[in-house]
Amino acid sequence: MKKFVNTLKLVLAFCAFLPALSFAHGDVTPQKIDITGLKTIKEINPDLPEGEWLTANPYRNNESTTRAVEIGKLAYGQNCAMCHGLEVVSGGIAPDLRRLTHDAEGDEWFTYRVKEGSVRDGRVYMPKMAEKLSQEGLWAIWTYIESVCTEPDRADCVK
């Protein structure tokens, strides 16, 4: 009888956990990103209309890169790692971001995804992060992601 009761407790505990599994993607509260030490988007491009996004990573290969990587690593851990994997090593839940290129195509994909999120069959797989996080913070995350893999052909980055 004791074995039955323990099994029943385990089954009930698992059933209580199931609703949380169905919201594994998207049901998140983005954590604010401290961008202290980074140039703001307005400082980088004063003519950019309010609410518009830069089309290229403003922190790539310049004096802001090191600070952006530091900020991005922390912000990635708080906002992205749960789905995209620690240190950008995907466990298969979400796309492996190390496969993206460090160019206009990669920037375009990144900005589209953080602005639009990902919804399939009415389920949110990734929320619209740009609605909650600053453009500076999101570009810092992208700078960190790019720093994880610096090989030009990308194949050497994904094991």
UniProtKB/TrEMBL annotation:
Keywords: Electron transport, Heme, Iron, Metal-binding, Signal, Transport. Gene3D superfamilies: Cytochrome c-like domain (1.10.760.10). One of its GO terms (molecular function) is electron transfer activity. SUPFAM superfamilies: Cytochrome c. This is Cytochrome c, mono-and diheme variants family. Residues 1-24 form the signal peptide. Transmembrane segments: none annotated. The keyword Repeat does not apply. Residues 67-149 form the Cytochrome c domain. It comes from the Bacteria.
